[in-house]
């Protein structure tokens, strides 16, 4: 709740006139508790999980012939019912785990200093903090993901997520309840290290989930803006990890690829891409008719 009785009080405290965005924020949040504002995360996550994957569902059902060239595993088909069943599984986890976790985690948000006050952060402040959040989450997630691929971690927890050897958008958060809890830690570390405004926190949670949905979409479109982000993995990169499944010791990165490159856990993927390129160019070493999927062995 903002500590100002009026717009004039807020402008006096800040020492300048409020921007249009700050005026809107004042009118919306002035009488609302910080806890109520934080709980907006539940609504945003629900909307992201529900709406964003629909894009990929519709293009596969309505324009499959037009986009087949961009489907990473073109032989795998998912019906609308398949997507709906996955959505309901995810929503069950959302209601039983994600939602309650959001409701009880507010004290930690207050402790690290996420603010709701005026002035609002500048665009550069938001972008720089989001950049840090993505880097911290990506690095931490890489090591947790590698741990989940050890024999115990995979058999007890992570194999649920790998039930989709050809991932779909709705399967991005599809996982064992313990994995949902564990992977909440990397998402929290960035804001804990560089606390910002609640608006930045909302954006971070929403963008991270949108990125995960794109990564699990099963489509590698050449026109997406993420193609211009350095070291961004994307759907093709993560799809390889899902196809290989429990045996995979490659492509653990959640967003960027630098950890896989530094620690040598992208060798299988890079070898597969090299061989596919040779096959397309008619330069196969043994003249065999091996397909791309046949050589995904690491």
Instruction: Count every beta strand, where a strand is a DSSP E run of 2 or more residues.
Output: 0
Number of helices: 15
Structural class estimated from helices and strands? mainly alpha
Largest sheet geometry: none
Order of helices and strands: HHHHHHHHHHHHHHH
SSE layout and pairings?
Blueprint: H1 7-14, H2 20-29, H3 34-38, H4 40-62, H5 64-67, H6 80-104, H7 106-112, H8 123-148, H9 151-156, H10 177-182, H11 184-193, H12 198-215, H13 234-244, H14 258-262, H15 267-280
Helix pairs in contact: 4-6, 4-12, 8-11, 8-12
Can you walk me through this structure?
The longest helix is centred in the middle third of the chain and has 26 residues. This protein is mainly α and 298 residues long. Helix 4 runs parallel beside helix 12, helix 8 packs antiparallel against helix 11 and helix 8 crosses helix 12. 60% of the residues lie in helices and 0% in strands.
Task: Summarize this entry quickly.
This protein is mainly alpha-helical. The protein is 60% helix and 0% strand.
Provide tags for this entry.
298 residues, single chain, 15 helices, mainly alpha, elongated
């Amino acid at each position: 709740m903002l500590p100002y009785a009026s717009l004039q009080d807020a402008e006096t405290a800040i020492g300048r006139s409020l921007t249009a965005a700050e005026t809107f924020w004042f009118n919306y949040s002035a009488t609302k508790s910080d806890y109520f504002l934080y709980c907006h995360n539940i609504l945003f996550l629900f909307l992201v999980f529900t709406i964003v994957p629909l894009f990929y569902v519709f293009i596969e059902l309505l324009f499959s012939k037009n986009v087949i060239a961009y489907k990473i595993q073109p032989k795998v088909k998912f019906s609308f019912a398949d997507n709906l069943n996955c959505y309901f599984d995810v929503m069950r986890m959302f209601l039983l785990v994600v939602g309650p976790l959001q409701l009880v985690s507010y004290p930690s948000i207050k402790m690290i200093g996420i603010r709701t006050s005026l002035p609002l952060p500048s665009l550069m402040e938001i972008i720089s903090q989001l950049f840090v959040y993505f880097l911290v989450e990506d690095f931490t997630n890489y090591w947790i993901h590698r741990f989940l691929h050890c024999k115990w971690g995979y058999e007890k927890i992570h194999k649920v997520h790998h039930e989709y050897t050809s991932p779909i958008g709705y399967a991005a958060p599809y996982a064992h309840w313990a994995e949902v809890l564990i992977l909440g830690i990397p998402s929290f570390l960035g804001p804990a290290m560089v606390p910002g405004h609640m608006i930045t926190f909302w954006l971070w949670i929403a963008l991270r989930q949108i990125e995960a949905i794109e990564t699990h979409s099963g489509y590698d479109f050449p026109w997406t803006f993420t193609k211009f982000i350095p070291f961004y993995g994307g759907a093709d990169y993560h799809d390889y990890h899902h196809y290989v499944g429990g045996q995979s010791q490659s492509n653990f990165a959640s967003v960027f690829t630098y950890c896989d490159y530094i620690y040598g856990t992208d060798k299988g993927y890079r070898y597969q891409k090299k061989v596919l390129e040779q096959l397309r160019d008619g330069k196969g070493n043994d003249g065999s008719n091996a397909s791309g999927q046949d050589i995904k062995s690491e």
